[in-house]
Amino acid sequence: MQDIEKLKSVLKRIDGRPYGFYRDLKGWYDYGDFRLNVDYVQPDPFAPPSQVAVRVDQSRAGFPEPLYSGPVRRIALEDCLVRHFYRRAQQVSVRGKGTGHSGLLAIDRPSQEVISRSAMVVNDRFVEARFVVGLPARGRTIMGRAALELFLEIIPQLVAGTLFYRRLDADLLKKFVESSEDAETIRNGLEEKGLVAVVADGSVLPRRSGVDDRPLPEEKAVKFAAPPELAVEFDCPNRGKVRGMGIPAGVTLIVGGGYHGKSTLLDALEKGVYNHIPGDGRELAVSRADAVKIRAEDGRPIAGVDISPFIKNLPLGMDTKNFSTQDASGSTSQAANIMEALEAGAKLLLLDEDTSATNFMIRDERMQALVSKDKEPITPFIDKVRQLRQDLGVSTILVMGGSGDYFDVADRVIMMDEYRPRDRTEDAGGIARSFTTHRRAEGGERFGSVKARVPLASGFDPRKGKRAAYAAVKGRGGILFGTGYIDLSQVEQLVDISQTRAVADIILYLLKKYVDGERSLAELLDLAEADLDREGLDCVGDYLRGDYARPRRFEISAAINRLRTLECRGEKARDQ
Q: Which ranges of 190-302 would DSSP assign to H, the alpha helix?
C-alpha cells in the first residue's frame, strides 16, 4: 500500500511523457478515508478506459447491517449505490479536456432491473466501487496536471458524495432494499399458492416506447387491477398485505383485441424474473425465476437437439432426435428453443403468437383435412401444451388473439380490455362447447423425452489471431467469440449489455475449467451457478472489473446453444 504522496510524485514525474508511462500508476494508494486501486491502465487515450476501484472500510462508510443482510437486500443496496455513483460521475466528469477518453469518469450504467453487478461490493468489511477513468492526454502525451486534478480533487469528491451512508438519502436506500425484498417474498411464495406469476394492483405495465423502458407517465397509464376471480393476497415484510392478480400453474391464455395490452402484460411477466427499481411500475409484477420466453428465431444454429416431441419424419430422413442445422426455420427454431429451455430447467414458458411460427402453433381442421398427418412432420404446440403440464410440470402463458382452438386446452383465459384484465375462462369454455372444433389431436399420449446433451470442447474455438481466448460483446445482443459471432438479439430476457459481457466470459470460464466431454450442459450450468453464488462475478474475469451483471442460467445456455461451432454428444434421453 502506497500513500497519496507517492501518487503525486508519480504523476509529476510522468507529466509530458509518452502515454505508456501511465502504467507506473498501477497499485493501491491510501487516501485516509478510502483506498484507491489502479488495476488496469489503458495503453492509449483511445483504448477502453482504465479500471479503477475505491474501497471504504465499513467502519467509515457506516452502512447499517440490516441494509445488506442477505443476498436480496445486499444486491438492492449495491444497485442503488451504483445508480447514485453513475449520476454523480456524470456531473463531475471532465471528459473532453484532452484526447480520446481523457477525463472520463463512469461506472456501469444500470437498467430498470435490479441485478447483481460487479460494479459495487458491499459487505460487513468494506464498500467498494469499481469504475473507469480516462487518463488525460494531449495527443499521446500525458497531461500530468489534469491527472493530478482528477485523482486528488475530482475522484475524492465523487467518493465522498456516494460511498458514505451519512451523506446519502437513507429513505431512498431503505426503499430500494425493501422493494426488492417484498418482490422476492412474493416470488418465493408463488409455488405454495399454486401460482406462476403475480401482478399487483396499481402496477403500471406500459413502457414509454420500444426503446425507452421507463414507465408510461401515470396520467397516461391505466393502473393494473386484478379481476375478483383471480385476486390473491400476499403478506410482504415491508408493504404488508399486497393484493394482485395471480396466474395459476397450468395453461393460461391472454386474449383480447389489438392494442389492448396483451403483449404488454406478457412483457411484464417476461421481465418479472427480475426485481425492479422503485418507481418502475413493475416492482410487484413477479414471475417464477425459471420462466423462459420462447419465440421463433429463423436462421439460428441448432446442435444435436431432440426436437422429436414437435417434429418427426422430415423429408430425406433427417434425424430429429439429434437435430442440427446452421439455418433453422421458424418452426424448428421454436421447437429447439423450447427443448433447450426444458433441458436448462425451465418450469414456465412464455409465448406470444406475434413472435411465433404459425405452423408451429396451430393446424386447424381444414388444413388437417387437406394435408394428412403422414405428410406433416410438425406436431403443433396446441397438442403438446397440456402434456408439458401433465408430464413435466411445466406451465405455459400464451398470448393468443387469432385462434380460439386454444380454448380447448386452456385452464384459464384472461382477456385484456383497455389494459384491464378480465377473467373470461367460463365464457371461453362455453364458446368451445358451442362451436365444437373437429380438429384431431396429433400429439400422441405423452410429451416425449428431454435429451441431456454433452458439449464437446472441440465445439468451442475462442482463438483469434495470436490470442488463445477472445470474447467481446457487440452490444446487448451479440458476442464476438474467437472468429465467430453469437447472435443473442432474439434472447429477450437478456436485458443488459453487462449481462452479455458476463455471459461471454462465463463461456470461456466453463471451457477452461469444466467442459470435459463428460458433463452435460445442465451440469455445466449448475457448476457455473454454484461458483457465482459462492465467489461472485469476480471468479470469471482475469482481473477485478466493474462491468459485469449476473445473467441467469437460461441466457448462458442460450449463448452456448447459438455457437455455430457447437458440437454435442447426446446422453440417454429422460423419458417423460
A: 262-271
Distance of alpha carbon 384 from alpha carbon 393, whole angstroms: 13
In tens, the pLDDT along 146-203 reads 999 999 999 999 999 999 999 999 999 999 999 999 999 999 999 999 999 999 999 9
Q: Is residue 220 part of a domain?
A: no
166 phi, psi to nearest 5 deg: -65, -20
Pairing type for strands 395-399 and 323-325 reads unpaired
- In residues, how long is the chain? 576
- For residue 243 the three cell numbers come to 393484493
User: 544 with 405, same domain?
Assistant: no
Q: Are both 25 and 153 inside the same structural domain? A: yes
Question: Nearest Cα to 40, choosing from 546, 476, 479, 455?
Answer: 546
Which of 124, 140, 168 lies at the terminal end of a domain, its last residue? 168
Q: Which three cell numbers stand for residue 65?
A: 447491517
| Phi and psi angles of residue 472, each rounded to the nearest 5 degrees, phi first | -150, 150
Phi and psi torsions of 385, nearest 5°: -65, -35
| 480 in any annotated domain | yes
User: Domain check: are 159 and 30 in the same one?
Assistant: yes
313 shares its domain with 439: yes
Query: Nearest-CA neighbor of 249 among 372, 397, 119?
Result: 397
Shared-domain flag, residues 429 and 509: no
**Going by DSSP bridges, is the β-strand pair 126-133/105-106 parallel, antiparallel, or unpaired?**
antiparallel
Q: What is the mean pLDDT of the chain?
A: 95
Grid coordinates belonging to 364: 386447424
pLDDT, average across residues 299-316? 94
Are 110 and 79 contacting, i.e. CB atoms less than 8 angstroms apart?
yes
Q: Give the 3-state DSSP-derived string for 476-524, with helices as H, strands as E and coil as C.
A: CCEEEECCEEEECCCCCCCCCHHHHHHHHHHHHHHHHHCCCCCCCHHHH
Are 335 and 465 in a shared domain?
no
Q: Which three cell numbers stand for residue 456?
A: 464437446
How many of the other CB atoms lie within 10 Å of CB of 8?
A: 15
- Residue 6's domain spans which residues? 2-168
Q: Where are the beta strands (DSSP E) in 100-230?
A: 105-106, 113-114, 120-122, 126-133, 137-138, 141-142, 195-200, 207-209, 212-215
Domain boundary, last residue among 419, 450, 481: 450
* SS3 call for 436: coil
Structural contact between residues 306 and 450, judged by C-beta atoms closer than 8 angstroms: yes
Q: How far is CA 551 from CA 154, 179, 275, 416, 504, in A?
A: 33, 21, 13, 31, 10
Q: How confident is the model at residue 93 (pLDDT cuts 50, 70, 90)?
A: confident
Lowest-pLDDT range, 257-261, 269-273, 293-297, 525-529? 257-261
* Three-class HEC string of 306-360: CCCCCECCCHHHCCCCCEEECCCCHHHHHHHHHHHHHHHCCCEEEEEHHHCCHHH
| CA-closest candidate to residue 175, choices 245, 276, 70 | 276
Mark whether 430 and 516 lie in a shared domain: no
Q: Are residues 493 and 562 in the same domain?
A: yes
Task: Tell me the C-alpha distance between 536 and 468, whole Å.
Answer: 25
CB 367 within 8 A of CB 330: no
